[in-house]
Design brief:
It holds the Pfam family ABC_tran. This protein has about 280 residues and is α/β, with parallel strands linked by helices. The chain has a domain of about 60 residues. It has nine helices and 13 strands. The protein has a six-stranded mixed β-sheet with strand order 6-7-8-3-9-10, with helices on both faces. Strands 2-1-4-5 form a four-stranded antiparallel β-sheet, covered by helices on one side. Helix 4 runs antiparallel to helix 5 and helix 5 runs parallel beside helix 6. It starts with a strand and ends in a 9-residue tail after the last strand.
């Protein structure tokens, strides 16, 4: 089932066209990851789909309605976004920050209702942050803070959550913790998750559907099996990848790769190897 559809999308910053004639769909109740090299338009696409930035041409429709025709509060009840760089929350407690997720449901003076309080407590519990409810955000670790921001997104009670590089600046253990939390929310709460990831193997391990971008266009979109292929990664990242299998998930993974350089890319290679996790940042 498809609820979010993007057709012939063009997005630009001033005269610089970033996303070009792009066509994709987001599978409902699945985890979709968007991969590609730096500057390829991943974050721009995410911001356009969530109406953070306008687009020049094309259609973005949710449940058959163009997102620009949706009332802001109504749209905020359907989709939440966690940006790559979160706002400064200095001086706020965890509970106060998570309560901001209830804004689309508030009326009048914006006082929290009993329902709001129950949802906030539920979001804290699900993300494992209930113990921090009365602590200041700036006293928490990076992984703890990221879980609190996810709790705020959950408090919006949206069916779809967008995350722009949710593992950035986290160590490998906290990266795994966040991705496993998102996977749990997808499986147990049936939340549709759409996230930008840099790490190819993390994308392969946790995604049901992958969209690979290059220069603002789709190179390949499909299942992990369809996208994590040598030729696709060569075009997207300019690497010659050795594809193997994850012994835990049995999904394809990049176990080694050569960096292809310049016009003579077939002859000039710099080799990198890592049999565990390869973070392919180009």
């Amino acid at each position: 089932m498809v609820r979010l559809l993007v057709n012939d999308l063009n997005v630009s910053y001033e005269e610089n066209l970033i996303v070009k004639d792009l066509n994709i769909h987001i599978p409902d109740k699945k985890i979709t990851t968007i991969i590609g090299s730096n500057g390829c338009g991943k974050s721009t696409l995410l911001k356009a789909m969530t109406r953070i930035i306008p687009y020049r041409a094309g259609i973005i429709a949710f449940d058959g309605v163009r997102i620009e025709d949706e009332d802001t509060k109504s749209l905020a009840k359907k989709m939440a976004i966690l940006p790559q760089i979160t706002e400064n929350a200095v001086g706020l407690t965890v509970g106060e920050l998570v309560s901001y997720g209830r804004h689309p449901y508030q009326k009048g003076w914006g006082r929290l209702t009993q329902k709001d309080s129950e949802v906030i407590d539920w979001a804290l519990e699900v993300t494992g942050t209930a113990a921090y409810k009365y602590q200041l955000i700036d006293t928490l670790s990076g992984g703890q803070r990221q879980r609190v921001w996810i709790a705020m997104s959950l408090a919006q009670e949206t069916e779809m959550i967008f995350l722009d590089e949710p593992t950035t600046y986290l160590d490998i253990a906290h990266q795994l913790e966040i991705l496993m939390l998102l996977q749990k929310l997808n499986k147990e709460q049936e939340r549709t998750i759409v996230m930008v990831l840099h790490d190819i193997n993390q994308a392969a391990r946790f995604a049901d559907y992958i969209i690979a971008l290059k220069d603002g266009q789709v190179v390949k979109a499909g299942s992990v099996e369809e996208v994590i292929q040598r030729e696709v990664l060569k075009e997207v990242f300019q690497i010659d990848a050795e594809i193997g299998r994850d012994i835990r998930t049995h999904k394809p993974m990049c176990i080694s790769y050569d960096l292809l350089k310049g016009e003579e890319c077939l002859n000039e290679k710099v080799t990198y190897s890592d049999t565990s996790v390869i973070n392919a940042r180009t």
